[in-house]
Amino acid sequence: MRRLAVILSMDVEGFTSLVEKDEAAALRSVEHAYRDLILPSIGDFGGEVFKTTGDGLLAEFASPVSAVKWTARFQRVLAADDFALGPKLRVRAGLVMGDIVVAGNDRFGDGVNVATRVQALSPPGGMAISRGVFEYLAGKTDLYFTDIGERALKGLSGAQRIWIWDPKIVGVTRPHAVATPDPATHPSIVVLPFDNLGGDPERDVFIEGMVEEITASLSRVREFLVIARHSAYAFRGSTQDVREIAEELGVRYLLEGSVRFAGARMRVSLRLVDGESALQIWSDRIEAQVADVFEVQDHIAELVSGALHPTIRQAEVERSRRKPPESLVAYDLVMRALPHLWAHRREENAQAIALVNQALAREPRDGRAAAIGAWAHGQQIAYHWSGDFSAERDAAHDLLDRTAGRIDDDPLALTAAATAMTLVDGDLDRANALIDRAIDIDVNHAWAWTRRGFARVYAGRTDEAFACFERAMRLSPRDPFSFNSMVGMGLAHFSAGRAAEAARWTRRALAEKPGMTWAFRDLSAFLGAAGDEEGAKAAFDVFCSQRQDVTEATVRDALHFMNPALLDAYVAGLATAGLACHSGREEGPSRAAGQGAVPYQSLVGEV
């Protein structure tokens, strides 16, 4: 008999080593897991074990959702289990939807073969699932799966799209509501009812719907508190001073707007106002065709959300700078650290680390501060700002350990931790899981889209990377960190074999961020690959003028997160610039600042 089913394959990681150490103890642990943890519960989820393989098993489920839920439950129970008579086990699990042939109590067919191969891609203690299983899960589980792309499976033709769940990453589930920012420290905003300048009452419903969408979109931004729509609606048509409204609602910022219609066209004017000073700190104008009501509302909500992210963040930075030192709290110190982090200059990065350390001294449990500090230490390695990569990795690991369970609902912190995991350990699977979580919480978080783009480039998924960088730049074109997406576009073009175009994007990023010298390494590699040996050498000289011991080995160590083909091509481009010749360069002032033979601006050139 043939049928479609969900097949689960599981086995114990490192079982051979456990047997070599103590065979009897290893077998006791396996027997305990099977007898006491698997058999009593698997039937409750519609599962049936049809084969055991010593340290593993194969089981069939009728429902993908039930199979995933039972597997997650088993992995959690196993992780918490303290079996005194044998070693602790770590199990890999693979689940696929496939065609099977039933022969008595056994099962055969493609489903079984694929499940055993998918299992090998599972993180220990987690699970890997195929597309067929993943597509059934939408809205039916609170588990977070990371897309790791198309993977070739041993002994099988073609490739399978695989998703993984790893409970170690962060926030295995969301057992509580998303945490609300503390109004005593975090910024708050109200979206006031927009003015209908045309006066046509039939347009009021459209405008109210758009304001509702903007409010809902901003509510997903975990970096600031958004006042509920019904509280804001009380001020419709009010001529009250914005400072009085801010005081009454307890908010720092107010978003005002007006809408004018001309036939099928509309113009939305927006203003962000400081509730304390009544000063306008941002404004913009959006024009659109009123062809599809919901599409227009969603589009404007996305643009507003993306624009207010960096605007309010920068306003909070300035606010923290105005506060006297004795009144600073951890939040203020983290806000002060951010501009130093995104400055992408060696001395500024050191200041970011110092400010984060101050924040953690005041609030040791501040997960966001720890994540940003880990990011800063990762930059010390990736940009050759440290002579001791090992010490930087140790410091980053210590800080990442502090984020456990403390950043689950903070997209900024999740993005920072993902960046650190990439730069420090090259762990793209874990980094992608955090980025996916950040975007799931706030789909308009430009920094998260930028980091997703880099992760895609490093993994060799260039086409997807372009889409991520383009979305980040569209969401937040005025973000002081937007130059990083330009750097990413350059690397993506290089990965796609377009070295000259890669150099153009990198020059654009350098023009956007004067004083940044690490990106001259990218420029040098791209120019070298494009055949411009003279330009490559000049760019590499600027990069090396502030760094010691730049060798092929240190470059490969710093950029170990790139896939092998990309890293080899990158190093080959630097070899054209004389990479090996720059070993042991003494630390000194940057010649890019005007002291050397090649002026900075001449290398940046026309963009």
General description of the model:
With 607 residues, the chain is of the alpha/beta class. Helices cover 51% and strands 16% of the residues. Among the domains are: 2-165, Alpha-Beta Plaits (2-Layer Sandwich), CATH 3.30.70.1230; 188-318, Rossmann fold (3-Layer(aba) Sandwich); 480-607, Serine Threonine Protein Phosphatase 5, Tetratricopeptide repeat (Alpha Horseshoe), CATH 1.25.40. The chain contains 24 helices and 14 strands. The strands form 2 sheets. Strands 1, 2, 3, 4, 5, 6, 7 and 8 form an 8-stranded mixed β-sheet that branches. Strands 9, 10, 11, 12, 13 and 14 form a 6-stranded mixed β-sheet that branches. A hairpin with a 2-residue loop joins strand 12 and strand 13. Residues 170-181 and 584-598 have low confidence and may be disordered.
Notable characteristics:
Rossmann fold; alpha/beta; 8-stranded mixed beta sheet; Alpha-Beta Plaits; Serine Threonine Protein Phosphatase 5, Tetratricopeptide repeat; 6-stranded mixed beta sheet
Question: How would you concisely characterize the structure shown here?
Answer:
By secondary structure, the chain is an alpha/beta fold. The protein has helices spanning 15-21, 23-42, 64-80, 110-119, 131-134, 204-219, 229-233, 242-249, 293-322, 330-342, 346-362, 367-382, 389-402, 411-425, 428-441, 446-458, 462-475, 483-495, 499-512, 519-529, 533-544, 552-558, 564-576, 600-604, and strands spanning 2-12, 47-52, 56-61, 91-103, 106-108, 127-130, 146-152, 159-165, 188-191, 195-196, 225-226, 253-262, 265-274, 280-289.
